[in-house]
Structures are given as structure tokens and as C-alpha cells.
Recover the amino acids of this structure.
């Protein structure tokens, strides 16, 4: 499977944006195809030069754009997808963003949630390849709740999309709101066409409270360990 990366980064000063870059570098061998990073800048971010230096080892194509405070990642998402468009059944793109960098609260919970999404989506690439043989999208925290014009989503906006399924549809359609990318897979694909990497069931009321760690422990090391062990066992079967 050809595996591409598409990443959105808002390198706000005094945030943990570099931590996200560290995660990309940690898993950089996963991406065997194109690596595209969209960096959005404004008066609150570090310089383009500082970001370029941090991303140098990733060997990616970096697009610098002006941050759109109203639309966020939605402002550039479809345009960047055009650089990846293909209907190759053996090609897929992983999308993620620098979650939490614009927040000033709940940072420990958001970082743990983000870490879980990186590890669950990227530790076992052969497992992802196998899942994508029958699924059009794969990701963690798959939930059936109405969101951004969709009936389901991968909560947190980290997911894999299979090119032959996505680009054979009206893929340029996206809800023009700040959360449009989170709802994007569910806007084009049926829930039954997707595959989830976690099994925790959440309602629309519980979802943000539980994932963010707001008034609750949030995603814990115990949760992640249990999920990773299940994927590790599945991965062993995939290699057998």
C-alpha cells in the first residue's frame, strides 16, 4: 500500500506544536508516498523559518498559508487533497492535525488523546493496509453521532482514507465550518464502509467530556495499553 501523509499545523508560540512534529518524525517510515504539511501562520505563530527547520528531517513538502481563524484546517483541506488525488486501490492518505495547540486548558488530556491517535493509527501499518482492503476509511474513536454534515466521524480528526473509494465520489464537498474536516469522512462514506481501531462507546453528550478529560480522567494509559494490545494481536494474525 502506498501511504501518504497530509498534516495541518498551526505553530502557535508557547504551545506544544513541536511535540506534534516529534510524533511525525517518530512514525515517518510509515509514509511510503507523499508527505504534505500545511503550515498556517498569523501574528500568534512562530516564524516560517523555525517551522521549516523543525520539519527538515521529515522530508516533506511544506505549504505555508495564512491562518483562517474562522475555518481553520477546512480553509486549505480540499486544495491540498488535489495534490494527492488518484483512484489507485493500493493508495491511502493519513490525515491529522496539531491538535490542542490553540488551547490554553485541558492540555494534558488533549495530549494524551492525541498520543493515542498517533500510536493507534501508525504503530501497525500492515494492519492498516489489511483493514483498507475492505474498508474505505480507518481510524480511532469512530463514533456514530451527527457532526459537520455527517452521521458519524472519527472524533479527533486523525484517519486513513482509501483513494479508490474517496476520489471516485464527489470528494470536494465539505461543510464550510471549523469542524468540517472532522465530519469529512462521514460526509462521503457510510459508517459501514469504515473501520474503527478502538471500541469505546460514547454518546454525543459524553464524547467531548470523556476524550478531553474534562471532568473525567479522559483517555488513560490503561485504555491505550488495552487498545494497543488488541491491535498487536490482530497485527500478528495479519503477518501470519
Amino acid at each position: 500500500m502506498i501511504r501518504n501523509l497530509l498534516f495541518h499545523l498551526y505553530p502557535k508560540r508557547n504551545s506544544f506544536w513541536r511535540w506534534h512534529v516529534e510524533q511525525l518524525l517518530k512514525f515517518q517510515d510509515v509514509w511510503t508516498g507523499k508527505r504534505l504539511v500545511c503550515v498556517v501562520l498569523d501574528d500568534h505563530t512562530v516564524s516560517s523559518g523555525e517551522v521549516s527547520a523543525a520539519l527538515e528531517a521529515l522530508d516533506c513538502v511544506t505549504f505555508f498559508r495564512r491562518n483562517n481563524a474562522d475555518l481553520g484546517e477546512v480553509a486549505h483541506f480540499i486544495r491540498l487533497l488535489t495534490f494527492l488525488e488518484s483512484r489507485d486501490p493500493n493508495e491511502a492518505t493519513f490525515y491529522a492535525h496539531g491538535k490542542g495547540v490553540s488551547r490554553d486548558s485541558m492540555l494534558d488530556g488533549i495530549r494524551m488523546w492525541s498520543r493515542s491517535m498517533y500510536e493507534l493509527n501508525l504503530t501497525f501499518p500492515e494492519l492498516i493496509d489489511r483493514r483498507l482492503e475492505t474498508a474505505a476509511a480507518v481510524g480511532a474513536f469512530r463514533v456514530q453521532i451527527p457532526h459537520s454534515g455527517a452521521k458519524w466521524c472519527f472524533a479527533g480528526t486523525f484517519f486513513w482514507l482509501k483513494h479508490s473509494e474517496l476520489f471516485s465520489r464527489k470528494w470536494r464537498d465539505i461543510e464550510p465550518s471549523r469542524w468540517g474536516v472532522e465530519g469529512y469522512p462521514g460526509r462521503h462514506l457510510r459508517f459501514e464502509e469504515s473501520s474503527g481501531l478502538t471500541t469505546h462507546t460514547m454518546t454525543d453528550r459524553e464524547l467531548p467530556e470523556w476524550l478531553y478529560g474534562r471532568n473525567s480522567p479522559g483517555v488513560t494509559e490503561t485504555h491505550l495499553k488495552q487498545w494497543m494490545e488488541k491491535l498487536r494481536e490482530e497485527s500478528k494474525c495479519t503477518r501470519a
Summary: The two ends are 18 Å apart (CA to CA).
